[in-house]
Design the sequence.
């Protein structure tokens, strides 16, 4: 079905995603079977859904990986219990996208102490001893990229009106993104005039944007943190018949890339925040558990931290990125 | 139930001499007075909106935005009013709404709609909503499971099913006949607002002018008396939950039109907003009294509140604190209003 | 009123047995009802009268027994079946829906509708007719029933039974919440119905009512028929009471020993007012005195009691106990000062229906019985059991849920509450409502004994003979005003009625 | 209230009304029978766990995992049992829990704790919880605002306040005396499980053996009757909501110990889980009947369910569907059990 993530559409030999370099085919050779426990927050928005699906798909591609997926939850208490269960079960590795990095640090440390390597994805633990390896998106960098892009476009207009549509405001990652955005805008003398918070969902995106457009009759640029809520944001913009501004997205869904490509909306660019992180996490966990290394690296083991880059996708370079866009 | 939930204790009142109050002198019914209090709260909110937002608040365009916002919640709130009037609750509406948007926007449904027209998508949403509601109803009425638990289970299960069907992806609506039918305006008013208006009026007639509505009140007010009067209480509850599911389906169609996307995250946490609007509107949680007009005003209050906050560009944390305080204040104001006008 | 052919009963119930878990409510009951008669059903509290008529109404399924209508056996498996066979019922518990209007309540379950839409105009005009027929043309069809008094609700309930065009109308203690004027009204309607051939099954604990309208009597005792089709005119009261109770009970008020002139004033109420309800009520009760409040339904008697008790906040005036002023609007203060109130509507104001009897009995005193916040359930049960025995509560066990007790026994439990607590002042609102003849005299004796022990008692009752017979002194209330105060011996029922009517006419 | 919420409405010929009989012959109280049904559901779940998970399920270690998971929810559920027994509801517990974790882990509090010991942090959490509960209580009891609305407002407001205080960041607990006191095991059992056990036992005594508990039941059973019997209903409601807030504070301490981090997102959506556990446990939503034992079993059922799912590695969406179905099945089973044992 076309709903498969673009990343997985490639042939079997091109398993490794682009961030890891063209994967060593050697590493794809089946090794001893490893059991990987995977726990992530509830799939209550598109990106998180894509994360979980991508992880499941990645594991399905290896016959030597048995993936145990815990029910997605936004309750750290439950997530801790899930990790405890994985520890008790003696899985070979754990891939953990914590709802809250700090809150899961203790239990992850426990797992490490029990000899189970933990791969931390997306939201960072508060202690370096809690994970064997960390796959990080760059939330601050995402804000910076978006801000820089807007600066490039509007840098000569100090009075330009910039609006920001956040995701769930209470999440630290949202704060990181906003901070980066603010800092980058400050560099060119701009600031955020209107800020609203949605909930990473299409419905909330539509709602807050409809109101935002009313609150700000003239806008020059909008940064929307998340492309999934962006579906609603775009619809609200269309409903309001507004087009005097341009918009920058976030995350990099395939849908958004198509819009950028065709130029049929105000969406000019998006900042990639890869939804393949967890899939990478699974792959790293498998390698760690099998004591292998990343193919192209000279060092003999999997590195501690893999920080993903947050590039800006525009009409000029969208073709390059189409294959990592996720179907939100 | 605790005292504060049954404000009308059996008023020992002579059948020959009616309770003398200014409101009966004014010829107003109890429901009208309660609604007046609500209208006052809404007007106060609008005044604040006007003072702080000026023309950005007080424009036809903004009115349409607020109404559009209120529409999806509002349609479900109409169904919920019936459920709460029976003394029940339906926590699953948000999640069922999500399920209907997903089911109605699958590739298969949209492809069929290309062939047979938008009716396929709409029919799908309504049927799915109705079915979920009827399942709730069967479990509650015939399984004797408390509504809270039955519908909480449906909340969780419908969300899971929606995720399975959508494979956790957002499904974009491309079906042109659907879009042209439900998106955009009619006579300057968004079509979904028209739908809300129609559902609200139909709901009002259904509750106040039909046998169905009177039985709903009876079942909620005194289930035993209703049974003894020959009403099939269980069957009636089944219908009422079916109705709530159906309104979730209608809201699903509206949301699909408005956001152009079906997603299992649609309707997340909507249930609390809907119930809050219904209860603030004056429908009693213990059952036996429901008001559609109150519900509509309740929904408008919440939509206006969101609008005023955003127009004033208030920090979202501060918004939340203010929102909590304002809801309580509105309810207190409404009570004071009702009390003063009857003393 | 008895029809020409007494051999052709309209309705027959034969060998009806109804078992509840843990209780045999009916154990073989027969009932024959002739067309056009008023058939009275008598029995002590808990004899099974309400259960029998609920079986007839389809609200309960009998464990055994047959029901015949016009000689044909019928099945009444649910309430609709009963209504379809022409049996309409006014239940003992008020069975109206507060949130609906008068008209909607009357037509509930058989709404006049076209295509689902209620025909409001037709319904309203028919309701108006029914209300006029019941002597209450002033109750508008669109009034919410929740705003009516208990009596008003009873009238609506009656109108509903009339609206069904029934052949048999069952009335379970309809007069309990009505005053004498209302009762006259009721009887007028009953006469009207019977003359049209409708049969009435009438339940009441007031024997004088049965004398007035009854044709034949069936007596129940402990779930069996002990008196069958007795002719009202030929059966002396003593015999009825003997059948019901199994013993000879003298149906008389206890003697008044007379309150000594030097008895201290226990309760002193001065210029008590509640705006819109009553004003400037002053009264004083001495230790050992029983004062009765007489008046029409809705004259404000209940509110006076509740205001003295602090359950309503007086707009002005003061209440003193043994010379000390009570805090206004505080029930807690009243209870702490040993004032007790047995409220009028026991279901909504008095009982925790799902709780056992003993917890209902100790509801105002469990904290006193407890030690430092820790409950002493054993002591509670002992205290409750003692008072239950003193009041002859049936069944005697105090562990069962009070919901399963018959109405009269629930009333006794309410009284037991204040006996356990011990009172300086006892406020009784309709203490014998729904209580059977035997228990009634027990309650009278008990109240008198309490008074003799120094309690000041204030009694409200809609039965004027009861007020006159029990009290030492009578206050007549009309329209929220005290219109008369004097010794009970020096006034009779007609005088009271005259004063009451005059006041309300003014 | 609708029929199904008042299983013992007067004199209806409904199977649920027959409960009184043979169980009283067996000498079992009504509460015991209902709890037996629950225990059966829990055992069935454990059986499934054992059959599918074998030793991975049936181990002491796994038991401790389940108990730890149950503890935080469980402590709040004890407070909620009191609230629901009065016929009220407290939707704010999750959000108040979040607020207490935030307030107790601010830099200021932790610095003070370094000086005066962990008592500062614990005291802070308890006070904040209590204060929030008392505010709920005042609004509900003295403001006559429906509990649903009052606590929903508190939910929103407390979340906003927590965000403001924490500046939407997660605050890490470094306070060593706190960590050493509350983290880890005691006699092989995690300390937070001990706390849960103590709170549960205390709650049981409070509800069943003290005048406070008796008042709670009376207020919920018939507030007007309780008032006329001399109970200060308003003040009692105030206390009960205060108690619920206090348990949220205790749970906050436990969650801080368990996660080592205070965050405004702690306790998100917890209210529904807690209420579900209490209601599945047999406490009536309409008030007048509450059972601590049932609540504890209810909490354990939910925790075990989560555990069995993880052990069996079921797809997350399917898990949700199954969860919905299982909750309904458990309630139905419990009812059937109660019915059979009395006929
Ligand atoms: N639902 C029930 N469960 C158990 N026992 C019941 C139930 N309903 C009634 N009973 C018992 O059946 C017996 C008959 O009760 P019923 O209400 O018919 O008495 P009654 O004759 O109407 O008395 P009253 O004059 O006080 O109204 C009583 O002993 C009562 O306790
Ligand atoms: N909640 C209320 N608000 C306004 N007026 C009321 C209210 N309750 C009662 N009344 C009025 O107070 C008056 C007295 O009623 P009350 O019930 O005290 O009469 P009563 O003499 O006790 O009659 P009953 O025999 O029915 O108990 C009535 O006129 C009634 O209409
Ligand atoms: Mg009876
Ligand atoms: Mg009265």
Sequence:
């Amino acid at each position: 079905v076309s709903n498969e993530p673009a990343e997985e559409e490639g042939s079997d030999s091109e398993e490794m995603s682009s961030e890891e370099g063209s994967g060593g085919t050697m590493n794809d050779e089946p090794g001893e079977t490893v059991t990987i426990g995977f726990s992530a927050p509830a799939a209550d928005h598109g990106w998180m859904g894509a994360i979980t699906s991508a992880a499941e798909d990645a594991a399905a591609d290896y016959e030597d990986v048995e993936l145990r997926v815990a029910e997605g939850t936004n309750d750290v208490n439950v997530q801790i219990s899930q990790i405890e269960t994985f520890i008790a079960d003696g899985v070979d590795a754990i891939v953990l996208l914590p709802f809250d990095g700090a809150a899961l640090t203790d239990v992850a440390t426990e797992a490490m102490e029990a000899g189970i390597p933990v791969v931390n994805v997306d939201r960072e633990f508060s202690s370096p001893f809690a994970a064997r390896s960390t796959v990080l998106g760059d939330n601050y960098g995402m804000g910076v990229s978006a801000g820089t892009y807007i600066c490039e476009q509007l840098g000569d207009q100090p009075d330009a009106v910039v609006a920001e549509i956040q995701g769930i405001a209470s999440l630290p990652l949202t704060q990181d993104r906003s901070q980066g955005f603010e800092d980058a805008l400050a560099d060119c003398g701009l600031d955020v005039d209107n800020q609203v918070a949605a909930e990473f969902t299409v419905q909330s995106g539509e709602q807050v944007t409809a109101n935002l457009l009313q609150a700000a009759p003239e806008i020059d640029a909008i940064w929307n943190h998340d492309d999934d809520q962006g579906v609603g944001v775009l619809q609200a913009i269309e409903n309001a018949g507004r087009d005097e501004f341009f918009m920058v997205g976030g995350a990099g869904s395939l849908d958004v890339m198509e819009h950028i490509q065709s130029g049929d909306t105000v969406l000019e660019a998006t900042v990639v925040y890869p939804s393949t992180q967890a899939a990478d996490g699974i792959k790293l966990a498998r390698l760690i558990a099998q004591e292998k290394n990343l193919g192209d690296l000279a060092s003999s083991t999997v590195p501690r931290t893999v920080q993903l880059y947050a590039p800006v996708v525009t009409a000029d370079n969208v073709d390059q990125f189409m294959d990592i866009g996720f179907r939100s | 139930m605790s005292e504060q939930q049954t404000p009308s204790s059996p008023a020992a009142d002579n059948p020959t001499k009616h309770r003398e109050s200014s409101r009966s002198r004014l010829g107003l019914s109890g429901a009208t007075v309660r609604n007046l209090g609500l209208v006052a709260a809404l007007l106060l909110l609008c005044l604040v909106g006007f003072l702080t937002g000026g023309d950005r608040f007080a424009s036809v365009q903004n009115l349409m935005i607020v109404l559009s916002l209120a529409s999806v919640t509002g349609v479900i709130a109409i169904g919920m009013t019936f459920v709460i009037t029976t003394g029940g609750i339906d926590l699953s509406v948000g999640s069922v709404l999500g399920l209907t948007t997903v089911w109605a926007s699958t590739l298969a449904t949209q492809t069929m709609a290309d062939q047979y027209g938008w009716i396929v998508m709409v029919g799908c949403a309504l049927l799915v909503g109705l079915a979920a509601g009827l399942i709730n109803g069967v479990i509650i009425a015939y399984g004797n499971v408390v509504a809270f638990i039955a519908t909480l289970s449906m909340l969780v299960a419908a969300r899971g099913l929606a995720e399975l069907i959508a494979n956790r992806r957002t499904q974009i609506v491309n079906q042109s006949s659907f879009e042209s039918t439900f998106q955009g305006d009619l006579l300057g008013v968004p079509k979904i607002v028209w739908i809300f208006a129609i559902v609200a009026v139909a709901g009002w007639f259904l509750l106040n002018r039909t046998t169905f509505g009177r039985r709903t009140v009876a079942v909620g007010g005194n289930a035993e008396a209703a049974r003894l009067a020959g009403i099939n209480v269980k069957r009636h509850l089944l219908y009422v939950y079916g109705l709530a599911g159906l309104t979730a389906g209608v809201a699903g169609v509206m949301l699909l039109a408005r956001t152009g996307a079906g997603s299992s995250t649609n309707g997340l946490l909507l249930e609390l907003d809907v119930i809050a609007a219904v209860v603030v509107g004056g429908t009693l949680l213990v059952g036996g009294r429901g008001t559609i007009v109150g519900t509509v005003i309740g929904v408008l209050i919440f939509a206006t509140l969101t609008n005023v906050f955003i127009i004033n560009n208030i920090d979202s944390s501060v918004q939340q604190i203010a929102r909590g305080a304002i809801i309580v204040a509105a309810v207190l104001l409404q009570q004071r209003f009702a009390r003063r006008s009857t003393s | 009123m008895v029809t020409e052919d007494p051999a052709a009963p309209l309705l027959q119930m034969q060998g009806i047995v109804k078992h509840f878990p843990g209780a045999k409510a009916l154990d073989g009951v027969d009932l024959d009802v002739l067309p056009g008669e008023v058939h009275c059903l008598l029995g002590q509290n808990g004899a099974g009268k309400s259960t029998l008529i609920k079986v007839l109404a389809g609200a309960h399924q009998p464990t055994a027994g047959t029901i015949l209508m016009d000689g044909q056996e019928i099945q009444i498996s649910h309430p609709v079946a009963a209504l379809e066979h022409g049996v309409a019922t006014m239940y003992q518990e008020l069975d109206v829906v507060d949130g609906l209007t008068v008209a909607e309540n009357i037509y509930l379950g058989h709404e006049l509708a076209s295509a689902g839409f209620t025909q409001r105009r037709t319904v309203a005009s028919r309701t108006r007719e029914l209300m006029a027929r019941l002597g209450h043309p002033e109750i508008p069809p669109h009034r919410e029933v929740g705003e009516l008094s208990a009596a008003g609700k009873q009238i609506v309930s009656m109108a509903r039974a009339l609206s069904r065009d029934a052949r048999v109308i069952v009335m379970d203690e309809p007069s309990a919440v009505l005053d004498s004027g209302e009762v006259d009204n009721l009887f007028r309607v009953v006469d009207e119905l019977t003359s049209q051939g409708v049969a009435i099954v009438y339940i009441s604990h007031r024997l004088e009512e049965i004398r007035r309208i009854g044709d034949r009597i069936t007596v129940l005792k402990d779930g069996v028929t002990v008196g069958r089709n007795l002719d009202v005119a030929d059966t002396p009261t003593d015999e009825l009471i003997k059948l019901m109770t199994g013993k000879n009970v003298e149906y008389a008020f206890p003697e008044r020993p007379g309150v000594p002139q030097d008895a201290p004033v226990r309760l002193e109420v001065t210029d008590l007012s509640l705006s819109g309800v009553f004003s400037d009520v002053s009264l004083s009760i001495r230790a050992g005195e029983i004062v009765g409040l007489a008046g029409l339904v809705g004259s404000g008697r209940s509110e006076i009691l509740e205001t003295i008790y602090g359950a309503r906040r007086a707009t002005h005036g003061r209440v003193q106990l043994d010379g000390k002023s009570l805090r206004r609007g505080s029930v807690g203060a009243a209870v702490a000062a040993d004032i007790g109130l047995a409220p009028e509507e026991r279901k909504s104001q008095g009982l925790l229906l799902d709780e056992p009897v003993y917890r209902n009995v100790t509801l105002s005193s469990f904290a006193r019985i407890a030690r430092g916040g820790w409950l002493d359930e054993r002591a509670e049960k002992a205290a409750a059991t003692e008072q239950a025995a003193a009041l002859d509560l049936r069944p005697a066990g105090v562990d069962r849920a009070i919901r399963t007790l018959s109405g009269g026994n629930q009333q006794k439990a309410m009284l037991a509450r204040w006996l356990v607590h011990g009172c300086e002042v006892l406020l009784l609102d309709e203490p014998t409502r729904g209580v059977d003849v035997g228990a009634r005299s027990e309650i009278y004796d008990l109240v008198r004994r309490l008074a003799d022990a120094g309690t000041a008692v204030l009694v409200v009752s809609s039965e004027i003979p009861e007020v006159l017979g029990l009290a030492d002194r009578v206050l007549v209330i009309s329209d929220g005003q005290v219109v008369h105060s004097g010794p009970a011996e020096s006034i009779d029922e007609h005088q009271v009625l005259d004063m009451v009517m005059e006041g309300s006419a003014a």
